[in-house]
Amino acid sequence: MRKRKLATMLMCTVLVIGLLSGCTSNNQSNTGNSTDNAGGQAGSTDQIVLRLADTHNEGYVTVRADREFARLVEEKTNGRVKVEVYPGAQLGDEKATIEQAQFGAIDFVRTSISPLSEFNKDLGILMLPYLYRDVDHMFSVLDGEIGENFLASLQENNLLGLTWFDGGARNFYNTKQEIKTVDDLKGMKIRVQESKLMMDLVTALGAIPTPMPFGDVYSGLQTGVIDGAENNWPSYFSTSHYEVAKYYTVDEHTRAPEVILISKMTFDKLSSEDQEAIKEAAKEASLFQREEWAKEEAAAEAEVVAKGSVITRLESNQEFQDAVQSIYAEFGAGYEELIQRIIDTK
Prior knowledge:
Number of helices: 14
CATH class of the largest domain: Alpha Beta
Pfam family, one: DctP
GO molecular function, one term: carbohydrate binding
Number of strands: 12
Strand content: 15-25%
Signal peptide: 1-27
Distance between the termini: 43 Å
Radius of gyration: 21 Å
Keywords: Signal
Shape: globular
Order of helices and strands: HEEHEHEHHHEEEHEHEHEEHHEHHH
InterPro entries: DctP_fam, TRAP_DctP, TRAP_DctP_sf
């Protein structure tokens, strides 16, 4: 562990030096390297340049929202703070960028809470299966006291959560038949992420969890190595999985919200005025992202329906919820009161 941390710190130092060497403006400074100018104090002409990492490619919903966030930050700080967006995993995968943000080498990170839960295990509660009634219920939880407490808890990891993005709901799709009941899943080989929670979920529903690299799913479905997989609408469409697995069941078993993080080292160097501007910009950018995500989902659904996918909407997923109670007993142990508060949120 000590060797890994030392290696990570060395990588962060090299990254900072490399990025700063490309800065050509004499009026720019980075909070990680110029505390005198942090926050754009009155009378300072220096512009603070901060970096935001995203693993998604240019044009993806979160990247568009990242750029809206950057625009809002610059607008709200009258140009004192500029946010540069680095999409396409230019600065590393999600786990690597989170680690770099802890050391202040990257200022902002857009990440799913799935890798983030490796740093803060409490976040795993937010990914329990069938926890939310729908997307509105999820954001009632996340935008309220519960969600704010989760964001603030990240300070223990030398990070600060700014806002929540929509990561969509994951649904099952397969090559064989419509899934209307738990029995319809029995015996199916379902591709899952290599995660104990996801594997236990599929097992509890009577299917056979089959971990597989995401890039191999299309051929796995096509050749019968697997019978199905699970993902959100935009992913189902953009990967062309609908071509080889036309049965899509809207059960919304998992919602893994996403978050914009700021390095606490960066945040603490900013003036209170710029801290508030960044918080406001993040909240506004999250509303933009959620609206754009909803449009992407609707467009993806329309496309796959037009191409012949059979869409099944469950009248109730109570039977599925009942089947996964063993997961709550294991992964929710010690969080029973919090889970009930989430369920009871209106």
